[in-house]
Amino acid sequence: MIQIGVNNTLSKPGTVGTHVLAMRFQDDSGQWSDPVKIGFPVYSTAAVSSNNLKAMAQEVPILVVQEGRMAGQRWALSAETVTIGRGEDCDIIFPERQVSRRHARIRKVEEGYILEDLGSKNGTYVNGYPLEGPYLLRDGDEIQIALCVKLAFVGPEATAPLFFEEGERGGLRLDKEGRRVWVKGRELDPPLSPAQYRLLELLYERAGRVCSRDEIVQAVWPEAVEGAVSDQAIDALVRRLRERIAEVDPHHQYIVTVRGHGFRLDNAMPAR
């Protein structure tokens, strides 16, 4: 659990002050951590209420050190770019020798927060897998810096449980407005073909329920004459979609064949 308290030093409209956020974290045993204070300098034409400040706080993700000599340390990712490394010019500094001087960075983008390795010697890992490109962070992701520092990413949407079990998060996500697809935080690039996307969207919306071949034809080829789309054409489309997803995650079968019935999406992220 996360507990938030507010100390508002902005006494009247038109003044400069600091809003101090005090946050405490509750572990599995029910024990609360010491308060972590985060200050927000404010210049405002109107006083900011405690409720508004709490809403502001929930928009800022937090990094929490889980292991290593700095275990328990926390940072609010309020800047557009945060660099992580051993060098004194980094925003978050870890003194371990395995950590490169400029090891990794987190950038705020329209979709959320992107983690990137900066060519480090000993690598950056997310949920146990080596980082091979820009990664869109999700609440509860585990970040390892050179396998000697373990961090947890607490997303701005986190309000009650601080971390989620792996099975509670899907490995595949869709942006329906932009017709974009992410697999384990990495966007499929190039994008799916229109037919591939329509098939995936149908399976995604069904949330694990079986979709029949007739339903697939109606969703993917709505103008097709009845009987004009063969089973072979459907199977070929499913195969191509599986291959595209496997480019990012070859270890999990997201599209499952249910013999005699159709297909369903298995979107649970498997345990390592």
What do these coordinates show?
- With 272 residues, the protein is an alpha+beta fold.
- The protein has 3 domains: 1-58, no CATH class; 60-157, Tumour Suppressor Smad4 (Sandwich); 168-265, Winged helix-like DNA-binding domain superfamily/Winged helix DNA-binding domain (Arc Repressor Mutant, subunit A), CATH 1.10.10.10.
- It is 17% helix and 32% strand.
- The chain contains 4 helices and 19 strands.
- It has helices at 50-57, 194-206, 213-220, 231-246; strands spanning 2-8, 16-25, 36-43, 62-67, 74-76, 81-85, 92-93, 104-109, 112-117, 124-126, 129-130, 135-136, 142-145, 149-154, 172-175, 180-183, 186-187, 255-258, 262-265.
- The two termini are 25 Å apart.
